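Whiteboard transcription, Tuesday session. T.W. wrote the structure tokens on the left side:
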């Protein structure tokens, strides 16, 4: 809010001075209330503030730390300019080094979504970063005569431990609380927060400050606080956990300083080392549990979102999605399956191959087994056999899902109905290779079939024959009755020719009233092959010469028409003739039949 009202040129210096003032006040509070009778506290909250300020605002906030520390120490009794400057420099360098270690070379998230982030804070900024501040600070005190050389190493250790604990407690608190927790202000939630902190505070006072000592003294053990920290982690996430840790840290060190409660004798016996170990352990346990629960909650929410995302996709696309076990049994079918198979309840745990066309079943099973074995999905086309006996053409691709150990777990199959696409493809193919009027192969298909016949003849040594037919009395019918009636005749001619040849032979419409018949795999003997070709040609000639009764729609008028054909025949074997030459020779033989009087059969060459 203030950032939007005040110019950035003014706001930035205000922030820098504000951090310096806050650092000085926090340092004063620490030395006054948390350091006991010495100059070194076992918990240095200013160190946590300094690191958080540099992490959030950048390196320029190290100047705020320096100014705050300098102002405090300069006003402390017995402090010299050199000592104040050295202590302030040590605090600033500690914050700079800690921030540098956390932001360069490691993936540190200041929101502490993972335990790894907290451990990085402890190891890099705490153990390593605090070492430079402890070294400079203790050396400065030694130089200024505040400590003796005999106390140097113990003071160095205590300084380091205090700064580590301050970083562990306050830095995460500041970083996390930049984003307030959600829902804490709701009435029921607010009551829960108040009760948890209220009871935890009361128990903390009993344990660390000796409240109700006559009654609860024998039972006031430090491990009670682990229960409240765990409860805060479960119910109040990391925000509540960090708040509770700071509260416990203050209660415990207050009891130690005043000689009450659980750590009453800790200053004399261990110089608060037990206190330090207790708080580090409590912090680790609390943050570990809070981050774990947060990660679990996030994973569950992510899983729920993914499930909802998957459900929305499955329910709103026409593709069919199936989840199968490794034996092909159905575990899930998307609602789109109901369009083909009706009620899906009967589908659960059934064999997914049962609905496949019998001719496709084994091939699909083989692809399924390969997907499970290799983990690589393959695209495959097959047919579903529906309850009414009809089929639907499908295109599918499967994918293997593995468990956390990398073992095959499930197969997800996405199928698409391509029936209409197949029909369109067949129609396009028909237009490309078949005559639209007679449904016979066209010249393009004939060219392909002739090439196959020539290759087969070369391979097996058997003759093949090409028959070229032209209708003798077609034009007068067209001229008198029009092309519609002429088309009826051409369709009937196609039927009659097809009825005269083997299924393996090819009948093609060459164009207009011209047709081509290709007879493959006759015999190895030329004379016998010629006889076979002539027999078929004669059969066709006789069939085409029979009268045609053509019905004109919609009037129902029946026209009787007589039409003969002239047929040219050429045999070919393993020779160097091209497809064009073979067709040309058959065409020449056909024209010879016309020249000789029509309704005849002629071979090329004539002899």
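and on the right, the sequence the group agreed on:
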């Amino acid at each position: 809010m203030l950032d939007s009202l005040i110019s950035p040129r003014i706001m930035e210096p205000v922030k820098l001075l504000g951090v310096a003032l806050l650092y000085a006040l926090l340092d004063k509070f620490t030395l006054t209330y948390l350091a006991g009778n010495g100059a070194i506290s076992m918990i240095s909250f200013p160190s946590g503030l300094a690191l958080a300020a540099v992490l959030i605002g950048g390196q320029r906030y190290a100047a705020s730390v320096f100014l705050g520390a300098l102002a405090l120490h300069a006003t402390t009794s017995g402090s010299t300019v050199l000592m104040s400057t050295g202590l302030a420099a040590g605090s600033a360098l500690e914050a700079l080094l800690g921030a540098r270690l956390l932001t360069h070379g490691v993936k540190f998230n200041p929101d502490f979504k993972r335990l790894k982030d907290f451990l990085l804070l402890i190891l890099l900024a705490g153990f390593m970063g605090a070492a430079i501040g402890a070294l400079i600070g203790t050396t400065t005190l030694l130089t200024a005569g505040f400590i003796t050389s005999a106390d140097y190493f113990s003071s160095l250790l205590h300084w380091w431990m205090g700064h580590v604990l301050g970083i562990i407690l306050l830095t995460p608190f500041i970083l996390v609380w930049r984003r307030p927790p959600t829902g804490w202000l709701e009435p029921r939630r607010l009551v829960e927060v108040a009760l948890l902190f209220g009871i935890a505070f009361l128990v903390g006072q009993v344990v660390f400050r000796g409240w109700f000592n006559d009654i609860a003294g024998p039972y006031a053990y430090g491990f009670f606080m682990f229960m409240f920290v765990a409860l805060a982690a479960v119910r109040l996430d990391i925000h509540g956990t960090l708040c509770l840790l700071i509260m416990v840290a203050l209660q415990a060190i207050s009891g130690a300083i005043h000689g009450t409660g659980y750590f009453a004798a800790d200053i004399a016996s261990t110089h608060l080392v037990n206190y330090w170990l207790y708080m580090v352990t409590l912090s680790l346990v609390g943050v570990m549990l809070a981050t774990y629960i947060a990660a679990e909650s996030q994973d569950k929410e992510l899983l729920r979102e993914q499930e909802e995302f998957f459900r929305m996709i499955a329910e709103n696309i026409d593709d069919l999605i199936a989840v199968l076990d490794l034996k092909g049994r159905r575990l899930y079918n998307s609602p789109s399956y109901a369009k083909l198979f009706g009620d899906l309840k009967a589908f659960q745990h059934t064999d997914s191959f049962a609905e496949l066309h019998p001719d496709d079943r084994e091939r699909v099973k083989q692809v399924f087994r390969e997907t499970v074995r290799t983990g690589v999905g393959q695209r495959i086309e097959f047919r579903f056999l529906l309850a009414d006996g009809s089929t639907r053409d499908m295109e599918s691709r499967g994918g293997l899902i593995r468990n956390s150990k990398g073992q095959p777990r499930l197969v997800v199959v996405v199928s698409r109905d391509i029936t209409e696409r197949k029909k369109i493809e067949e129609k396009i193919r028909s237009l490309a290779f078949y005559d639209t009027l007679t449904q016979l192969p066209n010249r393009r298909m004939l060219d392909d079939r002739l090439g196959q016949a020539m290759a087969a003849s070369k391979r097996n040594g058997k003759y093949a024959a090409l028959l070229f037919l032209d209708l003798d009395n077609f034009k007068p019918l067209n001229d008198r009755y029009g092309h519609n009636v002429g088309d009826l005749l051409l369709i009937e001619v196609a039927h009659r020719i097809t009825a005269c040849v083997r299924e393996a032979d090819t009948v093609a419409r060459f164009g207009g009233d011209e047709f081509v018949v290709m007879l493959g795999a006759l015999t190895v003997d030329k004379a016998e092959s010629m006889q076979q070709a002539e027999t078929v040609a004669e059969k066709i000639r006789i069939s085409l010469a029979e009268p045609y009764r053509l019905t004109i729609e919609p009037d129902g008028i029946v026209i009787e028409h007589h039409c003969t054909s002239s047929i040219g025949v050429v045999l070919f074997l393993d020779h160097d003739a091209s497809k064009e030459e073979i067709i040309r020779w058959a065409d020449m033989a056909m024209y010879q039949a016309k020249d000789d009087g029509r309704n005849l059969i002629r071979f090329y060459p004539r002899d």
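Someone added at the bottom: The chain has 20 helices and twelve strands.
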